[in-house]
Amino acid sequence: MSSSATTVRRARLSRTAMADDRGGWGWLRWLRGDGPRRPTVVVTTLAASALMVASGAIHLHLFTVGFSGLPTIGPLFLLQGIGSIVAALLASALRWAATALLGGAAMLATLAGFLVSVNYGIFGFQDTFVGTNQVAAFVIEIVAAVLFLTAAAVALAPRGRERPRGGAVAEP
């Protein structure tokens, strides 16, 4: 066997060894999880993404009706609005465990910023917990975070015994 044929054979073997049993790359398996294949992950990710878009829309609305004039806070509202919509589209398109975790983290960070702003003030601005937009965003972000984190947990959880194509459970 020639040297180049041996090299090609080794490269094929190493690629095969790196691939996991589902056709993905083994070292990226944690990133993808089993999300794209599980109906629970699909439904929860799409619902969470829709809520994340709603949160972004509320922040963009607030930016346009007056927050744009506030230094630091105004640009942060714009960033949160656009970032939420982009992240929601990414999460709903990929349905990976990592995108669900990032979506949940983004919603929790938004909640944390709001609560700090209400209780202590931030960047010279103190918000209130009164108003339709504040309450709606608060509830939407909690539900979105819970759904995103649920999707990530399900995507990363090991599956039960696989069924062969005929539908019967394989006996050990």
Low-confidence segments, given as residue ranges, are: 11-22
| Radius of gyration, taken over Cα atoms and rounded to an integer in Å | 22 Å
Along the chain, the helix and strand elements come as HHHHHH
Task: Please state the structural category.
Answer: mainly alpha
Could you estimate the helical fraction of the residues in percent? 55-70%
Beta-strand content: under 5%
Shape verdict: elongated
Q: How many β-strand stretches?
A: 0
Q: What can be said about the biggest beta sheet?
A: none
Q: What is the average per-residue confidence, as pLDDT, rounded to a whole number?
A: 81
Q: Number of DSSP helices?
A: 6
Distance between the termini: 40 Å
Could you describe the 3D structure shown?
By secondary structure, this protein is mostly helical. Helix content is 67%, strand content 0%. It contains six helices and no strands. Helix 5 runs antiparallel to helix 6. The longest helix is centred in the first third of the chain and has 26 residues, at 39-64. The chain is elongated and about 50 Å long.
What characteristics describe this protein?
172 residues
